[in-house]
Write a sequence for this structure.
C-alpha cells in the first residue's frame, strides 16, 4: 500500500509525460489536466490499486487514456452507442521540439520541418504508435494493450508506418528513429 507521499512522488515523476501524451491525443489542456487529477484522486482514494503494478508509467498512461476516453464519450452523448468503440482511432498530433543546444537554429528548423512532414504523412493511429514505440519506448504487448489491439496488429501497424515513411522519405527515417 502506497502512502500519500509516495503518490505525490509518482505524480511529480510522471505528470509532464502524462500531460504531453494527453495533448498528443488531441484533448484540450484543461481536459487533460482534469483527467490527470481524476487518475491521481482515484489512486489516492485506494492506494492498494498500485500494489500489483509492475510498470507504473505504463499503468498511468493506460489509466489516463481510459479516463480521457470516458470524458470524450460522456461529452458525445448524442453519438449512437455502436459508434463508440474503445479501439477506435483518436486524433494524435505530435509537435516536435529539437534541442537548441545540439545544432544551429537554421538546421533545427529544417530538421523539425522534415520530421513534421514525415509524421504528418502518417495516419493518427500510426503517429500514436510511432510515438509510443520510439519516444516512450514501450514494447509491443504494452502498446497493444494501450491501444486495445492484438500484438500482431500492433507489430503490423508499426511495420506499415515505418514502410510508409521509408517509401516516402528513404534513409531519413532511420535518422529519426535512432535519435
Amino acid at each position: 500500500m502506497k502512502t500519500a507521499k509516495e503518490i505525490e512522488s509518482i505524480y511529480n515523476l510522471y505528470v509532464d509525460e502524462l500531460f504531453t501524451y494527453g495533448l498528443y491525443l488531441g484533448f484540450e489542456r484543461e481536459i487533460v489536466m482534469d483527467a490527470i487529477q481524476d487518475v491521481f484522486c482515484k489512486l489516492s482514494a485506494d492506494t492498494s490499486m498500485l500494489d500489483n503494478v509492475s510498470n507504473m508509467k505504463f499503468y498511468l498512461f493506460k489509466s489516463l487514456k481510459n479516463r480521457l476516453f470516458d470524458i470524450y464519450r460522456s461529452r458525445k452523448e448524442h453519438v449512437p452507442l455502436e459508434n463508440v468503440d474503445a479501439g477506435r482511432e483518436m486524433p494524435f498530433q505530435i509537435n516536435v521540439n529539437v534541442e537548441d543546444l545540439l545544432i544551429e537554429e537554421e538546421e533545427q528548423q529544417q530538421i523539425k520541418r522534415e520530421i513534421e512532414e514525415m509524421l504528418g504523412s502518417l495516419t493518427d493511429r500510426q503517429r500514436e504508435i510511432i510515438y509510443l514505440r520510439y519516444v516512450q519506448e514501450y514494447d509491443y504487448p504494452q502498446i497493444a494493450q494501450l491501444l486495445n489491439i492484438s500484438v500482431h496488429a500492433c507489430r503490423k501497424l508499426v511495420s506499415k508506418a515505418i514502410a510508409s515513411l521509408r517509401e516516402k522519405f528513404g534513409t531519413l527515417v532511420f535518422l529519426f528513429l535512432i535519435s
In short: Residues 105-178 form a domain with the Arc Repressor Mutant, subunit A fold (CATH 1.10.10.10). The first helix runs from residue 4 to 24. The chain has two domains: 4-83, 105-178. The two ends are 38 Å apart (CA to CA).
